[in-house]
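Reopening this one. Same input as before:
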Amino acid sequence: MNVARLNEEEQGILDVVARFLEERVRPHIEQLEAAGHYPDHLVAEMKELGLFGIAVPEEFGGLGLRPIAFAAVMEVLSRGWTTLSAYINSHSTVAYAISTYGTDEQKARFLPGLATGEHRGALCLTEPGGGSDLQAIRGTARDAGDNYAVTASKTYVTNGAKATVLLTFLKHPLNAGDEKQRFSLLLVEKPAEGVAVTTTFHKTAFGLVDTVQIEMDDVLVPKAHLLGGVEGKGFAQLMEALEMGRIAIASSAIGLAANALSEAKRYAAERVTFGVTIDQHQAVQMRLANMATRLVAARLITQEAARVKETGGRCDMITAMAKMYASDEALAIAHDAVVIHGGAGYIQEYPVERLHREALLYTIGEGTNDINRIVISRRMRGVDEMGYLGLLA
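Same output, byte for byte:
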């Protein structure tokens, strides 16, 4: 993978990660998937490599990668094994939110442990029956002196069983005179009295990534754990933090797509029909060409999203584009990889069967692609976005 904007240190980190995946991970993926055991030994090695600290500033023990380098690492991780990138994604969003909006005390308390992986972060956003409408949540944070009393039910929490720091989206009860609902993000530590993992979901893919439902029953959370220390800022904080989440998902989807294309290209060079390998058949050549073009286009738009994020400009539109486009194209590439394999593509001993199942999740997670289309269309009403797109008002 060629990322021209990486400096020497960042490229060195990428090379180390790639070597770890090629030597320690890729030869064993199918056995790990079949065994169904959580890969604690690989997580331990990821901690040693500092991968849980890619979104944590250096002053708190992390790698502090720029968005473009963060995206590159996520792509390489996913190209190696998508499960490992899933362990890092929401964890990094939590770390990014704290490093961006946290008070000095919150940064000092949470970021060092998140950097080493001693503590694991998870996002508690979605509620049963709530879906993408986050402003319709029922979870509340009631004033209880020096604490908030939190009651909430959060579902589809990725890494929720392993997580120790839950970045939780909640609303405050309306006070007399309030014109609108106030939302906040609270840092809920687990284990804490009243926090319980009640359901573990069994998914079509990513079986080794714990996805759970978490119930919070009158949990006392210190007011010092209110992200940023000011009530009512949670929705804006969350939307900005999820921009990094979209970049992570887009990059992960690209890594999966690159893996699927590699497998399809290898199989096409080995499989013989009508006396020649199938990569000499024009229909397969055209399919491979389309897959390669989709991959490069998805990578470029994701790098552009990371560039805009790095410059500090408003990037909700471009990150939504990157997430939507990269995940859609990854699903299409994974599908074509199965088609090129023919019947073999439907057999579990071939990696493309798993990749095809995994690709679908990227179109759903971190905001469904239809939600991202709505984000894009709304931003297109702005003058700056019209100029960015080269459109006339």
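So the earlier flakiness isn't reproducible anymore. For the record, The chain has a mean pLDDT of 94.
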